[in-house]
Design a protein that fits this description.
Blueprint (H helix, E strand, L loop, with lengths): L27 H11 L23 H11 L4 E2 L2 H5 L7 H6 L11 E3 L4 H14 L1 E6 L18 E6 L6 E5 L4 E5 L4 H9 L3 E2 L12 H7 L6 H4 L2 H4 E8 L2 E5 L12 H4 L8 E8 L1 E2 L3 E10 L1 H14 L5 E5 L1 H11 L1 H5 L1 H7 L5 E10 L2 H12 L6 E4 H9 L4 H10 L2 E11 L3 H16 L7 E6 L6 E11 L5 H16 L19 H20 L12
Parallel strand pairs: 2-4, 3-4
Antiparallel strand pairs: 1-2, 5-6, 6-10, 7-11, 8-9, 8-10, 12-14, 12-15, 13-14, 13-17, 16-18, 17-18
Protein name: Alkyldihydroxyacetonephosphate synthase
Keywords: FAD, Flavoprotein, Oxidoreductase
Family: Belongs to the FAD-binding oxidoreductase/transferase type 4 family.
Length: 544
């Protein structure tokens, strides 16, 4: 994949990039377009300095702090203001608004950094016996409140920072398995596997910061899911530290020994145990890669192409379709329309609603790649080919979205995402319902929202829809502005699709989970929670 390895400061600050790093630039032509298209009047809305944020004093009882220090070492129990603030919340739009002075932060009472799975188990047991809440923390990339330090009815709440669990435990090249500790960051996992000629193939937009344990806990899905699968498809085994003891799952590639309990760990969001190790299926690293861009006239026509590819089993490793709105945003903000002359060329080809389709293929040999490409292109009908320049432009900017969001927030934009999935027969209806909900809730006065959408994960039976919203921020109620829009969109999703395809449940989606899994399903999850975590200390206030 030739993906760069970034050694970032993974403490949460006011944006995706750490303090002092260069954010994505927002060029003058992009500001002009935003003003004309959305009614933006650019305003300077910088991240508040950490010293200006309200941080409550730690209420972690001294005896508990002493017990934790005995387990991990006093230097790995952090109660100073800046240390606690650095592991506060995730990276949702609302989280980042709060960092700009728009609300209060749920700051943990301490940060505990265990050094290995055994120490995690001891910490979990100690917190359970003292009634202290535990929030597992990897890269801090949750956008649904999944790592908010909610205390609930506990005497205190600590963040369990897993960054010291950063080892590749073993590699089995014959079985194509690798065992990682849960705190390994995705780029480091790729670097470690590359030494063995292997890849995991999991590249979500959170790739630069997120951890393998976090991928498992949230049922992550990467941009190359068509080629490598979702993360739960890659997990062959998992180890969890629970208040009831160490729990290891996965002993063979397939089993009929009852329900697959690994799936209880996948998507459990830290409620059933702290994931400490993950055994994953790995693949030989690709030798050949090719990314190409195509333009289809309208989202419906593009979705039909993707459906045909999925059902014929000839999707590219990456297959991504942007609707006309997302295509407009991407090419306008990047200057692509002007610098490439694409817009005029497409008019000549009869394309009135350009929808960008990016397809990438990988292979161990050139012949393998070309064979896969030919199989795909036989079914890409009615599309205008833009060639590798457009495909490579997408590939090289694939992880830039969060930094671009930082720059957009700096000039006063409300910019946030949400995602869902449904069956092919409902896809068009779901897209229109969510678009209408977002447009209706965000249009106000001179503020004219742009609601963009893409498909990046496709299956034989259906696909995901990933929405991005751009609208000038409401200066009087910026948090309420997005929360009302999110509620409207979530209500539009219920009954048509899943409330979340890969962002997980956390706090934001919890009100909509019962409608999806039913009261019996909620009861099953609560029963599992009660069995594994009788005192309810694991990630209070999330999922159920």
């Amino acid at each position: 994949m030739n993906v760069p390895v970034d050694h970032l400061d993974h403490r949460v600050r006011g944006g995706w990039t750490p303090s002092g790093a260069a954010d994505a630039d927002l060029p003058a032509h992009a500001r002009r377009w935003l003003s004309a298209r959305t009614g933006l009047t650019p305003t300077d809305t910088p991240v508040a300095p950490d010293s200006g944020l309200l941080v409550s004093e730690s209420v972690l009882p001294a005896p508990v702090r002493a017990v934790l220090a005995d387990i991990v070492g006093a230097e790995h129990v952090l109660v100073e203001r800046d240390d606690r603030l650095g592991r506060t919340g995730g990276l949702s739009y609302v989280d980042l608004l709060v960092r700009r002075g728009a609300g209060e932060l749920p700051v943990p009472d301490a940060v505990v950094l265990p050094g290995d799975p055994d120490e995690v188990l001891e910490v979990v047991a100690a917190c359970a016996s003292h009634g202290v809440g535990i929030v597992p923390f990897g890269g801090g990339t949750s956008v649904v409140g999944g790592v908010a330090a909610l205390r609930g009815d506990k005497v205190a709440v600590v963040v369990l920072d897993l960054s010291r669990l950063d080892k590749l435990v073993s590699v089995d090249p014959v079985s194509r398995l690798a065992v990682f500790q849960a705190g390994v960051v995705a780029p480091e996992a790729e670097r470690m596997l590359a030494a063995h000629g292997l890849t995991l193939g999991h590249f979500p937009q959170s790739y630069e910061r997120a951890t393998l344990g976090g991928f498992a806990a949230t049922r992550s899905s990467g941009q190359a899911s068509a080629g490598y699968g979702r993360f739960e498809d890659m997990v062959e085994g998992v180890r969890l530290a629970t208040p009831r003891g160490d729990w290891r799952l996965g002993v063979s590639p397939a089993s009929a020994a009852g329900p697959d309990l690994r799936q209880l760990a996948m998507g459990s969001e830290g409620l059933f145990g702290v994931i400490t190790e993950v055994t994953v299926r790995v693949r030989p690293a690709p030798v050949w890669e090719r990314y190409e861009g195509f333009v289809v006239d309208g989202f419906a026509a593009g979705a039909e192409i993707v459906r045909t590819l999925a059902q014929a089993g000839v999707l590219g490793t990456v297959t991504r379709l942007s609707d006309p709105q997302e295509t407009e945003v991407a090419l306008t903000l990047s200057g692509g329309w002007k610098t490439t002359g694409v817009k005029g060329y497409l008019r000549l080809r009869g394309i009135s609603e350009p929808s960008l389709l990016v397809i990438g293929w990988e292979g161990q040999s050139k012949d393998e790649l070309l064979a896969r490409r030919r199989a795909t292109l036989r079914l890409v009908n009615g599309a205008v080919r833009l060639g590798t320049r457009a495909g490579e432009a997408w590939r090289h900017g694939r992880f830039a979205g969060p930094r671009q969001r930082d720059a957009l927030m700096d000039v006063g934009m409300c910019v946030e995402t949400l995602e869902t999935a449904t069956y092919w027969s409902k896809l068009g209806e779901l897209r229109e319902s969510v678009r209408d909900a977002l447009l209706g809730s965000l249009t106000a006065g001179d503020r004219r929202p742009v609601v963009a959408c893409h498909i990046s994960h496709s299956y034989e039976t259906g696909a995901s829809l990933y929405f991005t919203t751009l609208v000038p921020r409401d200066p009087d109620d910026p948090v309420g502005q997005w929360r009302r829009a999110k509620q409207a969109a979530s209500e539009a999703i219920v009954g048509l699709g899943t409330i979340t395809h890969h962002h997980a449940v956390g706090v934001d989606h919890a009100p909509y989970l019962p409608a999806e899994i039913g009261p019996l399903g909620v009861g099953v999850l609560r029963a599992v929670k009660a069995e594994l975590d009788p005192s309810g200390v694991l990630n209070p206030g999330k999922l159920v």
